[in-house]
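Researcher: Structure for this, please.
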Amino acid sequence: MGIRGTFTFDTGVNTRIKVGTILVYRQGKLDIGTLSNPVAPHAKAEIIIANRSLAVFSPDPVTGIYDPQQFGTGIVAFGEVNMHGKGMTPAWVRLAQEPRAGQKIHSRLRPVRPVGR
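Model: Predicted structure, token format:
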């Protein structure tokens, strides 16, 4: 999905988008809540990155997209990205080993300190 304008999530309801890649171009803007209008505490905003292989030698058979620069899957931002909502603790955890596609159980290496402490 390419964003050249502004793509804004509704901050008052649950939202979900499933993509292979979100590419925010220089002139683009992705807003998933802002400082003045964060995602509401009762709402959930989800971006699901599809497990897709890179189409580096030929176009993807489903989307027709070709990825010769190997940006891959995920969020690639050259423009502005805003994500604001309810604080979560911990915001991330360190895994004991690299997760594999389809794996359901992960081991944490150690507890991670809460954000801001």
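Researcher: Any notable elements?
Model: The beta strands are 2-3, 6-8, 15-19, 21-24, 29-32, 45-49, 74-77, 80-83, 94-95, 108-110. The first strand starts at residue 2 and ends at 3.
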